[in-house]
Amino acid sequence: MEEVSRNGADRPERSDGESLAAKAILARLEALAPYCARNAHAEDIEPGSPLAWLDERFASTHSVSGLLKQSLAAAMDNTRALRGLLFREEPAAAFSYRQYTHAPYSLVRTIIECATTVLWALLPDDGPERIRRSLVLIAREVFNAASFWDAYLEEFDPGRYARAVAYFDGLRRTVNDSAQAMALPPVFSRKADGKWGYATKNRTQTAILKELRVAGDVPPELIYVWQFCSGYSHGLEWAAGNGNAGLFGEVAGEQAAAGSMEQLRRVCDVAFDLVPRAWAIYDLRRRVWPLL
Question: How many percent of the chain have pLDDT more than 70?
Protein backbone atom coordinates (compact mmCIF):
# COMPACT_ATOMS: atom_id res chain seq x y z
CA MET A 1 0.00 0.00 0.00
CA GLU A 2 1.44 3.33 -1.09
CA GLU A 3 0.88 6.61 0.75
CA VAL A 4 0.76 9.99 -0.97
CA SER A 5 -0.71 13.43 -0.28
CA ARG A 6 -3.67 15.25 -1.80
CA ASN A 7 -1.98 18.64 -1.62
CA GLY A 8 0.85 17.93 -4.04
CA ALA A 9 3.58 18.24 -1.38
CA ASP A 10 4.74 14.67 -1.74
CA ARG A 11 8.27 13.71 -0.98
CA PRO A 12 10.21 13.20 -4.24
CA GLU A 13 10.20 9.45 -3.85
CA ARG A 14 6.39 9.55 -3.61
CA SER A 15 5.94 11.69 -6.71
CA ASP A 16 6.32 8.82 -9.17
CA GLY A 17 3.92 8.34 -12.05
CA GLU A 18 1.81 5.75 -10.26
CA SER A 19 1.24 7.97 -7.24
CA LEU A 20 0.32 10.88 -9.50
CA ALA A 21 -2.12 8.67 -11.37
CA ALA A 22 -3.68 7.56 -8.07
CA LYS A 23 -4.06 11.19 -6.98
CA ALA A 24 -5.71 12.03 -10.30
CA ILE A 25 -8.22 9.20 -9.91
CA LEU A 26 -9.06 10.31 -6.37
CA ALA A 27 -9.51 13.90 -7.51
CA ARG A 28 -12.01 12.77 -10.13
CA LEU A 29 -13.82 10.63 -7.56
CA GLU A 30 -14.03 13.59 -5.17
CA ALA A 31 -15.56 15.68 -7.95
CA LEU A 32 -18.24 13.00 -8.37
CA ALA A 33 -19.06 12.92 -4.64
CA PRO A 34 -22.15 15.20 -4.98
CA TYR A 35 -23.63 12.77 -7.51
CA CYS A 36 -22.79 9.80 -5.30
CA ALA A 37 -24.68 11.51 -2.46
CA ARG A 38 -27.89 11.70 -4.49
CA ASN A 39 -30.66 9.14 -4.10
CA ALA A 40 -32.39 8.88 -7.45
CA HIS A 41 -35.12 6.64 -6.03
CA ALA A 42 -36.18 9.41 -3.64
CA GLU A 43 -36.34 12.12 -6.29
CA ASP A 44 -39.65 13.17 -7.78
CA ILE A 45 -40.62 12.89 -11.41
CA GLU A 46 -42.59 16.09 -11.94
CA PRO A 47 -46.07 15.64 -13.46
CA GLY A 48 -46.06 16.81 -17.05
CA SER A 49 -42.31 16.29 -17.49
CA PRO A 50 -40.95 14.26 -20.43
CA LEU A 51 -40.07 11.38 -18.09
CA ALA A 52 -43.54 11.41 -16.51
CA TRP A 53 -44.95 11.35 -20.05
CA LEU A 54 -42.99 8.16 -20.74
CA ASP A 55 -44.15 6.60 -17.47
CA GLU A 56 -47.78 7.25 -18.40
CA ARG A 57 -47.41 5.38 -21.68
CA PHE A 58 -46.00 2.26 -20.06
CA ALA A 59 -47.85 2.30 -16.74
CA SER A 60 -49.31 -1.15 -17.37
CA THR A 61 -45.88 -2.69 -17.85
CA HIS A 62 -42.97 -0.94 -16.17
CA SER A 63 -41.96 2.49 -14.94
CA VAL A 64 -39.41 3.93 -17.35
CA SER A 65 -38.19 6.30 -14.66
CA GLY A 66 -37.81 3.35 -12.28
CA LEU A 67 -35.52 1.54 -14.71
CA LEU A 68 -33.40 4.64 -15.23
CA LYS A 69 -33.26 5.43 -11.51
CA GLN A 70 -31.93 1.91 -10.99
CA SER A 71 -29.23 2.55 -13.61
CA LEU A 72 -28.18 5.75 -11.86
CA ALA A 73 -28.17 4.04 -8.46
CA ALA A 74 -26.01 1.22 -9.80
CA ALA A 75 -23.59 3.65 -11.46
CA MET A 76 -23.15 5.60 -8.23
CA ASP A 77 -22.86 2.51 -6.04
CA ASN A 78 -20.08 1.19 -8.25
CA THR A 79 -18.40 4.61 -8.17
CA ARG A 80 -18.44 4.57 -4.37
CA ALA A 81 -17.20 0.98 -4.38
CA LEU A 82 -14.31 1.93 -6.65
CA ARG A 83 -13.24 4.67 -4.26
CA GLY A 84 -13.44 2.33 -1.28
CA LEU A 85 -11.53 -0.36 -3.13
CA LEU A 86 -8.65 1.82 -4.24
CA PHE A 87 -8.17 4.26 -1.37
CA ARG A 88 -7.85 4.24 2.39
CA GLU A 89 -8.44 7.83 3.40
CA GLU A 90 -7.42 9.48 6.66
CA PRO A 91 -8.75 12.68 8.24
CA ALA A 92 -5.45 14.38 7.41
CA ALA A 93 -4.29 15.16 3.90
CA ALA A 94 -2.51 11.87 3.43
CA PHE A 95 -4.18 8.85 1.86
CA SER A 96 -3.10 5.40 0.83
CA TYR A 97 -3.94 3.67 -2.41
CA ARG A 98 -4.14 0.00 -3.16
CA GLN A 99 -3.18 -1.32 -6.56
CA TYR A 100 -5.41 -4.07 -7.98
CA THR A 101 -4.82 -5.64 -11.37
CA HIS A 102 -8.35 -6.66 -12.37
CA ALA A 103 -11.14 -5.78 -9.92
CA PRO A 104 -11.41 -2.02 -10.65
CA TYR A 105 -12.16 -2.68 -14.31
CA SER A 106 -15.36 -4.54 -13.46
CA LEU A 107 -16.58 -1.48 -11.56
CA VAL A 108 -15.58 0.94 -14.32
CA ARG A 109 -17.32 -1.25 -16.90
CA THR A 110 -20.58 -1.13 -14.91
CA ILE A 111 -20.35 2.66 -14.53
CA ILE A 112 -20.05 2.93 -18.31
CA GLU A 113 -22.96 0.57 -18.95
CA CYS A 114 -25.34 2.23 -16.50
CA ALA A 115 -24.52 5.83 -17.42
CA THR A 116 -24.80 5.18 -21.16
CA THR A 117 -28.16 3.45 -20.66
CA VAL A 118 -29.51 6.71 -19.22
CA LEU A 119 -27.93 8.79 -21.98
CA TRP A 120 -29.23 6.51 -24.73
CA ALA A 121 -32.76 6.51 -23.32
CA LEU A 122 -33.12 10.23 -22.63
CA LEU A 123 -30.83 12.19 -24.96
CA PRO A 124 -33.10 12.25 -28.05
CA ASP A 125 -35.11 15.45 -28.31
CA ASP A 126 -37.62 13.59 -30.46
CA GLY A 127 -40.42 12.31 -28.21
CA PRO A 128 -41.36 9.29 -30.36
CA GLU A 129 -37.72 8.18 -30.41
CA ARG A 130 -37.58 8.34 -26.60
CA ILE A 131 -40.74 6.22 -26.56
CA ARG A 132 -39.14 3.65 -28.86
CA ARG A 133 -36.00 3.44 -26.74
CA SER A 134 -38.03 3.19 -23.55
CA LEU A 135 -39.94 0.30 -25.05
CA VAL A 136 -36.64 -1.41 -25.87
CA LEU A 137 -35.45 -1.00 -22.26
CA ILE A 138 -38.72 -2.38 -20.91
CA ALA A 139 -38.59 -5.30 -23.33
CA ARG A 140 -35.03 -6.08 -22.26
CA GLU A 141 -36.09 -6.03 -18.62
CA VAL A 142 -39.05 -8.33 -19.29
CA PHE A 143 -36.99 -10.71 -21.42
CA ASN A 144 -34.19 -11.07 -18.87
CA ALA A 145 -36.55 -11.41 -15.90
CA ALA A 146 -38.68 -14.00 -17.67
CA SER A 147 -35.64 -16.00 -18.78
CA PHE A 148 -34.38 -16.16 -15.20
CA TRP A 149 -37.65 -16.91 -13.41
CA ASP A 150 -38.90 -19.40 -15.99
CA ALA A 151 -35.74 -21.47 -15.66
CA TYR A 152 -35.37 -21.08 -11.89
CA LEU A 153 -38.95 -21.81 -10.89
CA GLU A 154 -39.29 -24.74 -13.29
CA GLU A 155 -36.36 -26.44 -11.58
CA PHE A 156 -36.59 -25.32 -7.95
CA ASP A 157 -40.20 -24.22 -7.30
CA PRO A 158 -42.52 -25.87 -9.84
CA GLY A 159 -45.60 -24.96 -7.80
CA ARG A 160 -45.12 -21.30 -8.73
CA TYR A 161 -43.95 -21.97 -12.27
CA ALA A 162 -47.33 -21.88 -14.03
CA ARG A 163 -48.26 -18.55 -12.43
CA ALA A 164 -44.92 -17.04 -13.42
CA VAL A 165 -45.34 -18.20 -17.01
CA ALA A 166 -48.79 -16.62 -17.20
CA TYR A 167 -47.51 -13.39 -15.64
CA PHE A 168 -44.63 -12.96 -18.05
CA ASP A 169 -46.78 -14.01 -21.02
CA GLY A 170 -49.07 -11.15 -20.10
CA LEU A 171 -46.15 -8.69 -19.89
CA ARG A 172 -44.85 -9.76 -23.30
CA ARG A 173 -48.27 -9.27 -24.85
CA THR A 174 -48.57 -5.85 -23.23
CA VAL A 175 -45.18 -4.85 -24.65
CA ASN A 176 -46.29 -6.02 -28.08
CA ASP A 177 -49.55 -4.08 -27.72
CA SER A 178 -47.54 -0.95 -26.90
CA ALA A 179 -45.36 -1.50 -29.95
CA GLN A 180 -48.42 -1.92 -32.16
CA ALA A 181 -49.99 1.25 -30.77
CA MET A 182 -46.83 3.14 -31.76
CA ALA A 183 -46.75 1.56 -35.23
CA LEU A 184 -43.61 -0.38 -34.32
CA PRO A 185 -42.93 -4.06 -35.08
CA PRO A 186 -43.72 -6.57 -32.30
CA VAL A 187 -40.89 -7.03 -29.83
CA PHE A 188 -41.65 -10.62 -28.82
CA SER A 189 -42.74 -13.62 -30.88
CA ARG A 190 -43.50 -17.27 -30.27
CA LYS A 191 -40.93 -19.78 -31.50
CA ALA A 192 -41.83 -23.11 -33.09
CA ASP A 193 -41.39 -24.85 -29.72
CA GLY A 194 -43.86 -22.45 -28.08
CA LYS A 195 -41.21 -20.47 -26.21
CA TRP A 196 -40.85 -16.72 -26.50
CA GLY A 197 -38.02 -14.92 -28.21
CA TYR A 198 -37.21 -11.49 -29.57
CA ALA A 199 -38.94 -10.73 -32.83
CA THR A 200 -36.42 -7.93 -33.41
CA LYS A 201 -32.72 -7.74 -32.64
CA ASN A 202 -31.92 -7.45 -28.96
CA ARG A 203 -30.68 -4.02 -27.94
CA THR A 204 -27.34 -5.09 -26.50
CA GLN A 205 -24.89 -2.85 -24.70
CA THR A 206 -22.68 -2.94 -27.79
CA ALA A 207 -25.56 -1.70 -29.94
CA ILE A 208 -26.35 1.08 -27.47
CA LEU A 209 -22.75 2.30 -27.47
CA LYS A 210 -22.53 2.13 -31.25
CA GLU A 211 -25.73 4.13 -31.64
CA LEU A 212 -24.51 6.77 -29.21
CA ARG A 213 -21.19 6.94 -31.05
CA VAL A 214 -22.80 7.32 -34.48
CA ALA A 215 -24.94 10.18 -33.14
CA GLY A 216 -21.83 11.86 -31.74
CA ASP A 217 -23.19 11.64 -28.20
CA VAL A 218 -20.12 9.93 -26.68
CA PRO A 219 -16.37 9.96 -27.43
CA PRO A 220 -15.43 7.58 -30.26
CA GLU A 221 -13.07 5.65 -27.97
CA LEU A 222 -15.78 4.85 -25.39
CA ILE A 223 -16.82 1.56 -26.95
CA TYR A 224 -13.18 0.41 -26.97
CA VAL A 225 -12.69 1.45 -23.36
CA TRP A 226 -15.78 -0.57 -22.43
CA GLN A 227 -14.57 -3.61 -24.38
CA PHE A 228 -11.14 -3.28 -22.81
CA CYS A 229 -12.62 -3.12 -19.30
CA SER A 230 -14.77 -6.17 -20.06
CA GLY A 231 -11.77 -8.16 -21.26
CA TYR A 232 -9.64 -7.01 -18.35
CA SER A 233 -12.26 -7.76 -15.69
CA HIS A 234 -12.58 -11.31 -17.05
CA GLY A 235 -8.83 -11.83 -17.07
CA LEU A 236 -8.62 -12.30 -20.82
CA GLU A 237 -5.06 -12.36 -22.08
CA TRP A 238 -5.56 -9.92 -24.95
CA ALA A 239 -6.45 -7.22 -22.43
CA ALA A 240 -4.85 -8.14 -19.11
CA GLY A 241 -1.56 -9.31 -20.59
CA ASN A 242 -0.73 -6.12 -22.42
CA GLY A 243 -0.40 -2.42 -21.80
CA ASN A 244 -2.88 -0.25 -23.62
CA ALA A 245 -0.30 1.37 -25.92
CA GLY A 246 -1.80 4.81 -25.47
CA LEU A 247 -5.26 3.88 -26.71
CA PHE A 248 -6.93 5.70 -23.84
CA GLY A 249 -4.38 8.44 -23.27
CA GLU A 250 -3.99 11.85 -24.73
CA VAL A 251 -0.54 11.04 -26.13
CA ALA A 252 -0.68 8.53 -28.96
CA GLY A 253 1.87 5.79 -28.64
CA GLU A 254 2.56 6.38 -24.95
CA GLN A 255 2.24 2.97 -23.33
CA ALA A 256 0.96 2.44 -19.79
CA ALA A 257 2.01 -0.78 -18.09
CA ALA A 258 -0.63 -3.48 -17.84
CA GLY A 259 -2.45 -3.27 -14.53
CA SER A 260 -0.89 0.07 -13.64
CA MET A 261 -2.61 3.00 -11.96
CA GLU A 262 -1.84 5.09 -15.04
CA GLN A 263 -3.73 2.62 -17.22
CA LEU A 264 -6.65 2.68 -14.77
CA ARG A 265 -6.60 6.49 -14.71
CA ARG A 266 -7.08 6.60 -18.46
CA VAL A 267 -10.15 4.38 -18.48
CA CYS A 268 -11.56 6.13 -15.39
CA ASP A 269 -11.30 9.51 -17.11
CA VAL A 270 -13.46 8.28 -19.97
CA ALA A 271 -16.02 6.61 -17.69
CA PHE A 272 -16.24 9.42 -15.14
CA ASP A 273 -17.07 11.98 -17.83
CA LEU A 274 -20.34 10.13 -18.41
CA VAL A 275 -21.67 10.52 -14.87
CA PRO A 276 -22.46 14.27 -14.79
CA ARG A 277 -23.95 14.02 -18.28
CA ALA A 278 -26.25 11.16 -17.26
CA TRP A 279 -27.49 13.09 -14.22
CA ALA A 280 -27.93 16.27 -16.27
CA ILE A 281 -30.16 14.65 -18.89
CA TYR A 282 -32.08 12.81 -16.16
CA ASP A 283 -32.74 16.12 -14.36
CA LEU A 284 -33.72 17.77 -17.63
CA ARG A 285 -36.28 15.08 -18.49
CA ARG A 286 -37.74 14.67 -14.98
CA ARG A 287 -38.62 18.34 -14.55
CA VAL A 288 -41.12 20.71 -16.08
CA TRP A 289 -39.23 23.78 -17.16
CA PRO A 290 -41.12 27.08 -17.41
CA LEU A 291 -41.43 28.70 -20.80
CA LEU A 292 -39.27 31.80 -21.05
Answer: 88
